[in-house]
């Protein structure tokens, strides 16, 4: 499996996508970030922290988590409900964090472990939905063919790219993304960058 580890990997994928779908050809001039994060417990815990809160709130809570040293399973388990509540975890997120700390999962599965098996393993943990699992597989594992179709920014970017009347829902976008295999993770990066630049232009009007 050709993991996405460098900007050169993104450039290679972008050129391949232009051949698979001509709509991507104009996007090859974009330089999307790698969006790579270290695999492991802390990255998944941070994803849980960020669920259903603003970016600013998530950053503030995560800073308290880091300051308290609650970035590994043992520390989280020892902290328990009171310790997690003290750094800003809600009741559901306390349950999710403790479940993650107790989970016996492989944070860095071998490259020959199928993508869907990785997603299935992660979504067995309370608080880890498909979107979170796909983001982890894309950003922490560098999987090249992961596409988090439930992401609203990707849905809106697809609407912009194809000049659609309305943005596609998750099921429709997942079907659209089939044609971008085996570079769907690069397609996601290009669409996120398209969304970002589009929003920047809108803010200047």
Explain this structure.
This protein is an all-alpha fold and 205 residues long. The chain has 2 domains: 7-35 and 145-204, Endonuclease Iii, domain 2, CATH 1.10.1670.40; 41-139, Endonuclease III, domain 1 (Orthogonal Bundle), CATH 1.10.340.30. Helix content is 59%, strand content 0%. The protein is built from 10 helices and no strands. Helix 4 runs antiparallel to helix 5 (91-102), helix 6 packs across helix 7 (130-139) and helix 8 packs across helix 10. The model has no long low-confidence stretch (mean pLDDT 94).
Helix and strand topology:
Layout: H1 7-20, H2 41-49, H3 55-67, H4 73-86, H5 91-102, H6 115-123, H7 130-139, H8 152-162, H9 170-177, H10 184-204
